[in-house]
Amino acid sequence: MTAYLKLDHIDKIFTRGAATTEVLKDINLTIEKGEYVSIIGHSGCGKSTLLNIIAGLTVASTGGVLLENREVNSPGPDRAVVFQNHSLLPWLTVFENVKLGVDKVFARTKTRAEREAWVMHNLNLVQMAHAKDKRPSEISGGMKQRVGIARALAMEPKVLLLDEPFGALDALTRAHLQDSVMALHQKLGNTILMITHDVDEAVLLSDRIVMMTNGPSARIGEVLDVPLARPRKRLELASNATYLKCRQRVLEFLYERHRFVEAA
Amino acid sequence: MNMSVKKIDAEGVAPSAGAAAAVVAMTPKRPPRSETYARMAKEAAVRVIPPLVVLALLTLVWELICRRAGSTLPPPSRVFKDTKELILDPFFDHGGIDKGLFWHLSASLQRVAYGYSIAAIVGIALGTLVGQSVWAMRGLDPLFQVLRTIPPLAWLPLSLAAFRDGQPSAIFVIFITSVWPIIINTAVGIRNIPQDYRNVAAVVQLNPLEFFGKIMIPAAAPYIFTGLRIGIGLSWLAIVAAEMLIGGVGIGFFIWDAWNSSHISEIILALFYVGIIGFVLDRLIAGLGKFVTHGTAQS
């Protein structure tokens, strides 16, 4: 197994005044190139913190992140993030939002015309080319998230980090976008790490599902392989035995062994 | 059974809906001009007529109160008669300070332009610093909070002592008056930039200069323009007072001069101009802000 992205003994302790909270404890994970890995867990288990550590937006207390055997501890376009709430800049058009990253990443390697063509190429990938001159406030939530995905893809990241990318969308839009992401993964072969709390989403999209125990001191409880052939079809999988078994395993983990404890 | 009924209904409705759509599509093309003009005229009337009525009533009351014998202030009819020349010829220049109102106002506006421009640049720069750096805030904010309460005119003797000239002193007073709201609002705007935008900038790896230009200024623009708008109001307030003391050409000294020569009507005319210009300046900055920040509203 070749480690493309390696999380090496990551601990995260938050300190506020005299109080310290251990959020993550001893997280170890290796991800291969081209793999689609989901991290699932109850809210508050620190999965978003883990993603921020990988993205370099938060620093791990101990341990570190290795990407192609090199330590990464600051944010960069090689680990582009699709944020939960899309985080498009409202004063820029769709085109300019994607271009912001492209201009930085390809400042030396592409000419201006090439960069603009590349922006359009990525908007086309997510079927948003028609709205290139609209501002984020003029497009729907699902469209915003598509643009967010285009912005991340356009930076040609080594690892694409998705932070609950479909969490804020309605069920139909979500399904539509999940299919889009699956198609993109199929086409481009990106390495993707996705944070989610949706069991069906995790099983449908992932090659492996990393299940986290409840915090504080959340650990990786179990890693489940999803041996389903791609391309996967949502409707066919609904009655697929492997799919149901995987789904069952995740549900058992989340609702029996590590039931969400309401904070008192 | 239900279904078949629905089906018939749908079929029955469809052609009429199509016909209605065709009619609707045609109608607005016919009387567009006159109708839109009428509507615009109506909207304008709704805005313009009430203040005009109030103005007319107030003028009438003023006329009635002040036309009695022994009244200390002139009625509007006297004001108009006394200042007719000033109103009709604002461009005369007899040398010295004996100039038309246009020259006085433009001299005042020029001072405001200098002082306010410096205040805008310094205010946004300092506000960015204070908003961005916790240590700058801890160090500077208490100082700002104390300094901003000092009345504009209290600075004037000090600046006269420092600059030994009226012109730079007046500009300094404008600057020191209008800089505080710009600093404070910019700082609040910078501090309120959502973490999401900062994360985006971090992932894209914008350098500090790009971050300033592409994230900070647009994100904080609504706050900055609030500060700029308060600032322009304050600087127009301060210039009139400052000019009364420094003399020379300027609307402030024009008022003071008119008082010294007991030309009360001229004072009233000057106040009218000061009010109108203050209003226009405020609208100007508000309009500019609206234009610049039209895309910044949170989505």
UniProtKB/TrEMBL annotation, chain A:
<dbReference type="InterPro" id="IPR003593">
    <property type="entry name" value="AAA+_ATPase"/>
</dbReference>
<keyword id="KW-0067">ATP-binding</keyword>
<feature type="domain" description="ABC transporter">
    <location>
        <begin position="5"/>
        <end position="239"/>
    </location>
</feature>
<dbReference type="InterPro" id="IPR027417">
    <property type="entry name" value="P-loop_NTPase"/>
</dbReference>
<comment type="function">
    <text>Involved in beta-(1--&gt;2)glucan export. Transmembrane domains (TMD) form a pore in the inner membrane and the ATP-binding domain (NBD) is responsible for energy generation.</text>
</comment>
<dbReference type="Pfam" id="PF00005">
    <property type="entry name" value="ABC_tran"/>
</dbReference>
<dbReference type="GO" id="GO:0005524">
    <property type="term" value="F:ATP binding"/>
</dbReference>
<dbReference type="InterPro" id="IPR005890">
    <property type="entry name" value="NO3_transporter_ATP-bd-like"/>
</dbReference>
<keyword id="KW-1003">Cell membrane</keyword>
<keyword id="KW-0813">Transport</keyword>
<dbReference type="InterPro" id="IPR017871">
    <property type="entry name" value="ABC_transporter-like_CS"/>
</dbReference>
<keyword id="KW-0547">Nucleotide-binding</keyword>
<keyword id="KW-0472">Membrane</keyword>
<dbReference type="InterPro" id="IPR050166">
    <property type="entry name" value="ABC_transporter_ATP-bind"/>
</dbReference>
<protein>
    <submittedName>
        <fullName>Nitrate ABC transporter ATP-binding protein</fullName>
    </submittedName>
</protein>
<dbReference type="InterPro" id="IPR003439">
    <property type="entry name" value="ABC_transporter-like_ATP-bd"/>
</dbReference>
<comment type="similarity">
    <text>Belongs to the ABC transporter superfamily.</text>
</comment>
UniProtKB/TrEMBL annotation, chain B:
<keyword id="KW-0812">Transmembrane</keyword>
<feature type="transmembrane region" description="Helical">
    <location>
        <begin position="113"/>
        <end position="131"/>
    </location>
</feature>
<dbReference type="Pfam" id="PF00528">
    <property type="entry name" value="BPD_transp_1"/>
</dbReference>
<keyword id="KW-0997">Cell inner membrane</keyword>
<keyword id="KW-0406">Ion transport</keyword>
<comment type="similarity">
    <text>Belongs to the binding-protein-dependent transport system permease family.</text>
</comment>
<protein>
    <submittedName>
        <fullName>Nitrate ABC transporter, permease protein</fullName>
    </submittedName>
</protein>
<dbReference type="InterPro" id="IPR005889">
    <property type="entry name" value="NtrB"/>
</dbReference>
<feature type="domain" description="ABC transmembrane type-1">
    <location>
        <begin position="105"/>
        <end position="285"/>
    </location>
</feature>
<feature type="transmembrane region" description="Helical">
    <location>
        <begin position="262"/>
        <end position="281"/>
    </location>
</feature>
<keyword id="KW-1133">Transmembrane helix</keyword>
<keyword id="KW-0813">Transport</keyword>
<feature type="transmembrane region" description="Helical">
    <location>
        <begin position="234"/>
        <end position="256"/>
    </location>
</feature>
<feature type="transmembrane region" description="Helical">
    <location>
        <begin position="169"/>
        <end position="188"/>
    </location>
</feature>
<dbReference type="InterPro" id="IPR000515">
    <property type="entry name" value="MetI-like"/>
</dbReference>
<dbReference type="InterPro" id="IPR035906">
    <property type="entry name" value="MetI-like_sf"/>
</dbReference>
<keyword id="KW-1003">Cell membrane</keyword>
<keyword id="KW-0472">Membrane</keyword>
